[in-house]
Design a protein that fits this description.
Layout lengths: L2 H15 L11 H22 L1 H7 L1 H14 L10 H11 L9 H16 L17 E4 L3 E6 L18 E7 L5 E6 L1 H9 L6 H12 L5 H17 L2 E5 L1
Length: 243
Amino acid sequence: MTGLQAFQSAFGARLRGGRSVPCPPGVSAPRMAVYETLLFNNLRGFVDRCFPVARACLGEARWKRLCRSFYRDWPCRSAWFRDIPRAFVDYLESAAPAGLPRWLADLARYEWAELAVDLMDVALPPVEAGASLLDDFPQPNPAALSLAFAWPVQRIGPDFRPRRPAPVCIVVYRDGSEAVRFIELSPASARLLALCDGATRGRAAIETLAAELGRAADPAFVAFGAHNLAALADAGVILGARR
């Protein structure tokens, strides 16, 4: 390791570790503190904006300690600032300190999904007027994430902190006006949406769902599936269909 590389390594270690790590040779603690504060506050800005509910639930002091441990311990490998929130979610799911609420990682992924969908760069598939969601090929909105959580993340906040898991399926998507929206789905509806891959007819997706549930694809079940497809299309989760 060259002298420059050694200095850079020591400088970076001090930035992450703070006062528990010695300053690099030739750099005074007051000068080092300027960089330490600047970089940590910069990171806090991205994390705070993406996770306001998680921050409110933990409280300011506890949240700051969590951000500090993330800053110190987790290797953020992307050069894009916009990827910091995703790295924070990965940290909570993989290496977060003990003692945090069990639902915190799920809540963070739920909050991050809004940013992820807002930033998605996608091409909308073509749809045809008059095409049938049942007999033709439903086209899902590509600016969407269909997520399953062990906890009721859509209800968590400072006034509600669940004690027991309660699984929930949520689709996060960008509508025609570019607004990000959230819809809670039943497990069956979430699975039906997953089966609509753009190359499967709606009726075939419903029949596959029926087989997975151990049900007959009788007229009543097909009608149930068609109703769900129509509801997803009305919401903008499915954009329409093509022949």
